[in-house]
Amino acid sequence: MTGGLRDSGTQGLRDSGTEEAGSTSVPASLSPPVPKSPGRLLGFDPGTVRIGLAVSDPDRLVASPLETYVVRGPALDGPYFAKLVAAERVVGVVVGLPLHTGGEEGIKAKESRVFGAWLAGVTGLPVVWWDERCTTAAAEDFLRLAKLNPKQRKERRDRVAAQLILQGYLDAGCPPEGTVVTPPEPAP
Questions:
Q1: Strand pairing partners for 20?
Q2: Position 183 confidence tier, pLDDT thresholds 50, 70, 90
Q3: CATH number of domain containing 120
């Protein structure tokens, strides 16, 4: 996932054991829930080389792309993200969870959970995971429609994917900790 973040002491995370129809459980003991009161949220589209970042407005109506961060390793990434959440006055974090098309978690989802647990530790903020299926493809399509060349699309893709993840979470009403709502299947 993000370099050495896998070895950040977050192995052994356990599921809360609570699963609802259309949702996937997340570690219940990881962090307190994202506050329902107004405040900015920071969205992450984690990757092994680049991490897309997006931020919401304080009323949590709109997500905006923020930046594409190039992974440098936990010793540099941790302080950077801690400073970023302070500068942006963020009260919670939303991390993309790459589920399989059937909603199951694979290796990348586990890496995302470890990354989110690590983020909770370095920022001291609550973390919630959100289904990120198809967000990178949707971001690429959006950027292609904007008639950007391949280099421009690559520069923006991860932060736009983070924006789509965060906007999906906002549009769903910011569900509480432990809930990853999966979109309903399209009717045949």
A1: none
A2: very low
A3: 3.30.420.140
| Number of domain units in the chain | 1
Structural domain contains residue 27: no
Q: Cα(first)–Cα(last) distance of the chain, in Å?
A: 35
- 46 pLDDT above the threshold of 80: yes
Whole-model pTM: value is 0.74
Reduced to 3 states, what is the DSSP secondary structure of residue 100?
A: coil
- Please identify which residue in the block is written with the tokens 């990853």: 180
Helices 150-171 and 135-145, packing angle to 10 deg: 130
- The per-residue DSSP string of 166-186 comes to HHHHHHTT-PPTT-EEPPPPP
Cα 137 from Cα 22, distance rounded (Å): 22
| Range of the structural domain that residue 49 is part of | 35-180
C-alpha closest to that of 153 among 68, 71, 70: 68
pLDDT at 26 over 80: no
Is 99 strand, coil or helix? strand
Task: Tell whether 73 is covered by a domain.
Answer: yes
Pairing of the two strands 40-45 and 90-97: parallel
Q: What is the pLDDT of residues 140-181, one digit of tens each?
A: 676 667 777 877 767 778 899 999 999 999 988 888 754 444
